[in-house]
Design goal:
Helicase, Ruva Protein, domain 3; Rossmann fold; Beta-Lactamase; transcription regulation; 455 residues; alpha/beta; 4 domains; five-stranded antiparallel beta sheet; ATP-binding; five-stranded parallel beta sheet; ATP binding; binds adenosine-5'-triphosphate; Sigma_54_int_dom_ATP-bd_2; AAA_lid_NorR
């Protein structure tokens, strides 16, 4: 069928092509420019004659025209960054006799000034949003199912999470470093009615004292030299409607503790440089590995704040007190790390498992994960052996000679053996006592001596 376009005089077709599509570029199969309209040349500040026949990637920044010409796949309304501006590009393959012979692309906007204004507005919004995205983590990474462990302690903590998650009461999570405090905080948020609202974390120990107030409560424009234009929202405002996770709360300076308590009691915060308090609705989850009771005695932690946050206490036991969790965690980390690294691990030597069971894991689960990651990378075959462990775990003697007195080493070892035996025999005291060659009453005595929960 004859095209109606052929009836239109060529100079009219040219006027249409020059003006109808905003900016227009046409490339051949190889991505070389065969046509580009004047408006586009003006914007790019190039002479048309000099760019015809040149590969499009050399003329237009971030161009994908050659890709569309090669793949034949159209790209519509794609955001393209050219000469410092975001633009909306359409790229369409040109098909002739069932073959892709090139592509044409259009970039749309007529009023350049208007676009520039909108563009700079978009850019400043994007920068602002970016800085907030870093603060807010709506996509809480972990849920209760990610909290692994068959031990009685972990199971009962998980039950407790289910019981208290829906309410708005404050939670204080305590435990050594690497025991999973943050993971518990995520799980509580995820199971709460606030799960679609932000989960905002602040590490109270990592922020210098003079910045902590503005980090927590925000500041107004002009509040101090160097203050950002338009001010900045604090973590409380960012968490509004959701959960605020105060990590390392034991490291918070005492005068900030006073301000924090006031905010919690009044449900209002005042940003630095403002006199207008704003209402906020946040659920508080705090975590620490500090001995808060001792710190209260020494007046380094405020009692009133302690009682305000310690409504539901969570005490996460160190890994050495729940050795039965080691195998399931080991399995999980091996799967996770091999998937990430592409390495294959078929088995773990018995001595490695034994060594893991003897070790005291001062860095807890984080340390276990790191040790497994290193071992997977260090092994030459598909088996993890003692050789692939770090030196301090390889040593045949794990006793801290030179660091501790004999009595302490013996007691620590005895305590660990008791825990291991109970774990091995599923808390069956009679069997554990038998395996250790002691009477049941002697076992009970020892459990009492070491403060091991033997219910
Ligand atoms: N029960 C668990 N199951 C699976 N992974 C866990 C568990 N507990 C902790 N982890 C993993 O161990 C690492 C440390 O956990 P997390 O950061 O929650 O510990 P933490 O107690 O908050 O540490 P810190 O006090 O140093 O901040 C994380 O990679 C976490 O995913």
């Amino acid at each position: 069928m004859r095209s109606a376009l052929l009836d239109i005089p060529i100079d009219i077709v040219e006027t249409i092509v020059e003006n109808a599509f905003g900016w227009l570029v046409v490339v051949d199969k190889e991505g070389k420019i065969i046509y580009i309209n004047k408006n586009y040349c003006d914007f790019l500040e190039v002479e048309r004659d000099t760019v015809i026949g040149v590969h499009v990637s050399k003329v237009i920044e971030n161009s994908r025209m050659h890709i569309v010409a090669a793949t034949g796949k159209e790209e519509i309304a794609d955001l393209q960054y050219i000469r410092g501006n975001y633009m909306i590009a359409n790229r369409i393959p040109i098909v002739s006799n069932n073959f892709v012979v090139g592509a044409f692309g259009t970039v749309f906007f007529r009023d350049t000034k208007e676009w520039m204004k909108m563009n700079s507005h978009v850019k400043s919004m994007l920068t602002k949003i970016q800085s907030y995205i870093q603060d807010i983590d709506r996509s809480v990474k972990y849920s209760l199912d990610d909290l692994l462990g068959n031990s009685k302690q972990i199971q009962s903590l998980k039950d407790k999470v289910k019981m208290i998650a829906a309410s708005d009461i404050s939670v204080l999570i305590r435990g050594e470093s690497g025991t999973g405090k943050e993971l518990f905080a995520h799980s509580i948020h995820q199971l709460s009615n606030r799960s679609h609202q932000p989960f905002v974390k602040i590490n109270c120990g990592a922020i210098p004292e003079h910045l902590l107030e503005s980090e927590l409560f925000g500041y107004e424009e002009g509040a101090f030299t160097g203050a950002r234009k338009g001010g900045k929202k604090g973590k409380f405002q960012l968490a509004d409607g959701g959960t605020l996770f105060l990590d390392e709360i034991g490291d918070m300076p005492i005068n900030m503790q006073v301000k924090l308590l006031r905010a919690l009691q009044e449900g209002e915060v005042e940003s630095v440089g403002s006199t207008e308090p704003v209402h906020i609705d946040v659920r508080i989850i705090a975590a620490t590995n500090r001995p808060l009771e001792k710190m209260m005695e020494e007046k380094r932690f405020r009692e009133d704040l302690f009682y305000r946050i310690n409504v539901v206490p969570f005490m996460i036991p160190p890994l050495r007190e729940r050795m039965e969790d080691v195998p399931i965690l080991m399995d999980y980390f091996i799967k996770k790390i091999t998937k990430k690294s592409g390495k294959r691990i078929m088995s773990i030597d018995e001595d490695v498992i034994e060594r893991f069971q003897q070790y005291s894991w001062p860095g807890n689960i984080r340390e276990l994960e790191n040790v497994i990651e290193a071992a997977i990378h260090l092994t030459n075959n598909e088996v993890i052996t003692l050789e692939s462990l770090p030196d301090y775990l390889k040593e045949s003697s794990l006793f801290p000679v030179g660091k501790k007195k004999l009595k302490e080493i013996i007691e620590e070892t005895e305590r660990r053996i008791l825990l291991q035996s109970l774990a091995k025999y599923n808390n069956n005291k009679l069997e554990a006592a038998k395996a250790l060659g002691i009477s049941k009453s002697s076992l009970y005595e020892k459990l009492k001596k070491y403060g091991i929960d033997h219910s």
